[in-house]
Predict the structure.
Amino acid sequence: MDEGAWLIEPFEEHRPRLRAVAYRMLGSVSEADDAVQDAWLRVSRADTTGVENLGGWLTTVVVRVCLNLLRSRTRRRAEPLEVQVPDPIISPESGADPEHQAILADTVGLALMVVLETLTPAERLAFVLHDMFAVPFEEIAPMIERSPAAARQLASRARRRVQGEAPVPDPDLRRQREVVDAFFAAARHGDFDALLAVLDPDVVLRADGGRARARRTVVVRGARNVAGQAVTAGRLAPFVRPALVNGTAGAVVVAAGRVLTVMAFTVVAGKIVTIEVLQDPARLAEVDPAVLDHRGS
């Protein structure tokens, strides 16, 4: 038997958690899958004699792969975009398929993922592992070659950023949908006052048009400014299809069989507080609109 063959079954048992960690680290399902596969290649060739906590060891291997990818990304981005919306996980309103449910596990709204993109690789690692997966700082510290106290400080700094820019959405999906539907109804009719009624006064809209359309990569703040943008975009309302985007109420604009826009909303206390918009043609070309017709199980 191959030396790493005995690892296949336990690795597969841990795969859902490893994919969930990698998605939060990288913001892309495909890159997360690649990172987990890369980790498997490393693990299958490694000496596991002294491994006592297999789950922790596998997580460490995946995280180090992700950290290398994040650092490589940072070096390549000579001119970072003001907003980078990660790859959204799109599901029909009936619910995510089991594979995506395992990745999301808890609420990982797109607003949170956008904020994670603004963190340094070390901050992101410390926050994701500690705050999302309860990994002790004593285990995190060696991964980033810092002391536990320094790792704690990195997570704290990231946490402040997240709490300030990615509030936790209302848990009631039906209520979220009512608010989002009201937003699109108001946009369709050009009803500025109705838009103001569903927008938080300090609402933030972040739109990622991709590197080829950097001029469309913008941040809009304040209810009146966001309402103005919505009225202008009201012509798209007939093409809007409701969806879950990263587990929260969202929408996908589909025309002529192509996905033109993905929108994710954070609804808190009945008001929209953030809107994340992905308009990058290169990435949207990979989204199959048929995903909206699938039914979760």
